[in-house]
Design goal:
The chain is of the alpha+beta class. The protein has seven helices and twelve strands. The chain is elongated.
Length: about 300
């Protein structure tokens, strides 16, 4: 058998070569609405960089591909955005050799385990990534709200105030993450404590190209802090950037109040869709999304990356 060639792409070949690999469209970016399974480089007006796009070739034919993604101004990739193959072993070798790292967020349809074809497609990618050292972190619901779903009612129980002082925002985030179910926050806490978890959230808020003035702390009418909600935009869409209730205020359904306010802010800004997500195990937050009229569009199967690439 001909040796496998693993390499990153260059601009004049990237799109044609990357898109030469056939796929069934059952999992991954083809599930997005509108679909975003068309590869294009930044120079072509797309989202990807050839040097962050890797392929495995045999006899000049692409048998595995991987594209890492970040925002247009980022200098390091944030996620493994695209990974598929016709040869699972080649896919594993590709991930082992590519000198880039990022969480692998595999998009799957709701109930993906119930359809044998979809389950086989998804599980094959999960198995290949796991063999390359990626580890399961969390499964998440991905929601897409549209105006036709209706604006959620505002309960009127809380007072929302802008907070220009980042330190006060950080303190609210510390309190939220001092007791949390969120898998990404728990990873940050394990690595660097509550301080790291809070700082990572703040860094994400700043990274989003949306107004700082949208951030709101929520209080009871008596002035007690309830939590924080951050409407935002990422490079692709309006999003629910963050919803968090401090531990001592949980059990009153306040997550819904924060989500309703966030939705109204984004809708008033002209959003024709709002993307959001929560861990499958966060039952309270999932109930808040359901009550607010957010339908589950996809499930994201999230795997954390391994250490440095193997030469």
């Amino acid at each position: 058998m001909t040796d496998l060639v693993i390499r990153h792409l260059v601009e004049d070949e990237a799109t044609a070569l990357f898109t030469s690999l056939p796929h069934a469209g059952l999992v991954g970016r083809a599930l997005l609405d509108p679909p975003r399974d068309t590869y294009a480089t930044l120079a072509e007006g797309g989202e990807y960089r050839p040097e962050w796009t890797w392929v495995a070739e045999r006899d000049g034919k692409v048998v595995a591909r991987a594209a890492f993604w970040a925002g247009p101004d980022d200098t390091e990739p944030k996620v493994l955005d695209w990974f598929d193959f016709t040869d699972p072993a080649a896919g594993t070798k590709l991930l082992r050799r590519a000198p880039l790292r990022g969480d692998f967020n595999l998009l799957l349809p709701p109930g993906w385990r119930d359809d044998p074809r979809v389950r086989a497609e998804g599980q094959a990618r999960i198995d290949a990534a796991t063999a390359a050292g990626y580890t399961f972190m969390v499964e998440r619901y991905r929601y897409v709200w549209r105006p036709a779903d209706g604006l959620p009612e505002r309960p009127g129980r809380l007072v929302f105030r802008p907070e220009p002082d980042d330190e006060r925002v950080l303190e609210a985030l510390r309190r939220v993450h001092s007791v949390t179910l969120d898998a990404h926050a728990l990873r940050a806490v394990a690595e660097g404590g509550v301080e790291q978890a809070a700082q990572e959230e703040l860094d994400f808020f700043r990274w989003c190209p949306s107004p700082r003035e949208w951030w709101r702390l929520a209080y009871t009418p008596e002035g007690e802090l309830v939590g924080i909600q951050v409407p935002a935009h990422n490079p692709a869409a309006p999003i629910v950037g963050f919803i968090g209730v401090v531990p001592e205020q949980r059990g009153h359904g306040y997550a819904y109040d924060l989500l309703a306010e966030c939705t109204h802010t984004l809708a008033a800004g002209g959003a024709d869709r709002i993307v959001a997500s929560t861990d499958v195990g966060n039952v309270g937050m999932a109930k808040a999304f359901a009550r607010a009229g957010y339908p589950v569009a996809q499930v994201t199967y999230n795997l954390a990356p391994p250490g440095p690439a193997v030469a």
